[in-house]
Specification:
The protein is an alpha/beta fold and about 350 residues long. It has 2 domains: about 5-165 and about 345-360, 3-Layer(aba) Sandwich (Rossmann fold); about 180-340, Rossmann fold (3-Layer(aba) Sandwich). About 45% of the residues lie in helices and about 15% in strands. Strand 7 (about 180-185), helix 7 (about 195-210) and strand 8 (about 215-220) form a beta-alpha-beta unit. Helix 10 crosses helix 13. The longest helix has 20 residues, at about 55-75. One of its GO terms (molecular function) is glycosyltransferase activity. Pfam families: Glycos_transf_1. This is Glycosyltransferase involved in cell wall bisynthesis. InterPro entries: Glyco_trans_1.
Length: about 350
């Protein structure tokens, strides 16, 4: 049995790459096909620690480096699987891990869960590191839509594509939503880059046209505080339209999905948002943006609409189409569920990843 050393993120804290890492660790298919060992690449143990320094985080990082060195020698893996951060401080940290594995003669595959190489490739130091790290390496991307980000350093023949998947939920879906008011759901942290303010502008435009909607916003504070967000709601006179529900988890979160008619994600900085897969599982038509691998998830005119980033009017127009056309919502709802079940389950993800790892090793 081939041996793989997995150096990846897993919870805590909970974020996209960590969730996928957890699926890999718990996958019977993957673990029955390979002799695997795992190293936690993360140095944060809570959301509050992300982006902050400290002695404890440095000690955790040195522990990652030491364990990588030790396992590459002791375990002698056929492949080192590393969830490489694309840019910034995270890339610098991960690059050293990668270079240790490469210097010890290990074959390496990088699984990108984010993007941003192209934004830093013209900086001389970053360019040098990208060349060293990505030379003669295999790369797994979430979608062909993301190849542009690494094409300077990696040929297409060395790239593999593996869309993420999420577990099926053992609950009944609400097939017949009967309400005169259409429920819109947004679920992400309060971040400007997730388009929260664009959403509020779109809601204001819809209210001014007397379009009957209710919009629920779920998520914790990011670079937008709850106070600032609620003040913006008041400023735009949306207190009767937009409801902020704070953080929601588990069954509490699922209740909001079941009540919703439309899911919105006006992001302008994303890669492969798992929350869209959750929405599809509930059969929600999606209005989102042309960003990252989102066109892989949302096929415009089929299971939702895609609009240019930061365009509140275009976003509002697509929401309006869905609000005023129940037959269109129903058709897109069925398409969303079919696409999720055929492509975006954890089983489908595990099959894809297992085949890729077999091909590489």
């Amino acid at each position: 049995m081939k041996k793989i050393l997995y150096i990846l993120h897993y919870p805590p804290p909970v974020h996209g790459a960590a969730i996928v890492g957890k699926y890999i660790m718990e996958s019977a298919l993957i673990n029955n096909n390979f002799n695997g060992r795992y190293i936690n690449l993360g140095t944060s143990r809570s959301v509050d620690e992300i982006g902050k320094g400290g002695i404890i985080k440095w000690l955790r990082y040195f522990n990652v480096l030491f364990n990588t060195f030790l396992e590459c020698i002791r375990f002698s893996p056929n492949l080192v699987y590393l969830t490489l951060t694309a840019n910034g401080a995270g890339f610098y940290k991960d690059a050293l891990v990668a270079l240790i594995a490469k210097c010890l003669g290990c074959k390496v595959v990088y699984h990108f869960h984010n993007k941003g190489v192209i934004n830093n490739q013209n900086k001389w130091f970053d360019n040098l590191l990208y060349k060293l790290v990505l030379k003669k390496a295999q790369v797994i991307l979430l979608s062909p839509y993301l190849y542009y980000d690494i094409k300077k350093y990696v040929s297409k023949s060395d790239v593999h594509y593996c869309a993420n998947g999420i577990p099926k939920l053992p609950i009944g879906l609400n097939e017949n939503k009967e309400s005169s008011t259409i429920e819109i759901l947004f679920l992400s942290n309060l971040l400007k880059a997730k388009g929260v303010y664009i959403l509020l502008e779109a809601c204001s435009l819809l209210k001014n046209k007397n379009i009957d909607i209710k919009c629920t916003v779920i998520g914790g504070e990011g670079d937008i505080s709850v106070v600032d967000f609620e003040n913006k709601i008041i400023e735009l006179k949306l207190t009767d339209v937009v409801y902020y529900a704070g953080k929601q988890y588990g069954d509490d979160k699922l209740v909001f999905f079941e009540k919703a008619d439309i899911f919105v994600h006006p992001t302008y900085n994303d890669c492969f948002p798992l929350v869209l897969l959750e929405a599809m599982q509930f059969g929600l038509p999606i209005v989102s943006t042309i960003e990252g691998a989102i066109p892989e998830i949302v096929e415009s005119q089929k299971n939702g609409f895609l609009v240019p980033k930061k365009e509140a009017l275009a976003f509002a127009n697509e929401i309006e189409k869905l609000v005023l056309n129940p037959d269109l919502r129903s058709t897109m709802s069925q398409s969303a569920k079919l696409k999720y079940n055929s492509k975006f389950t954890t089983g489908a993800f595990e099959d894809r990843l297992c085949k890729i790892l077999k091909n590489i090793t």
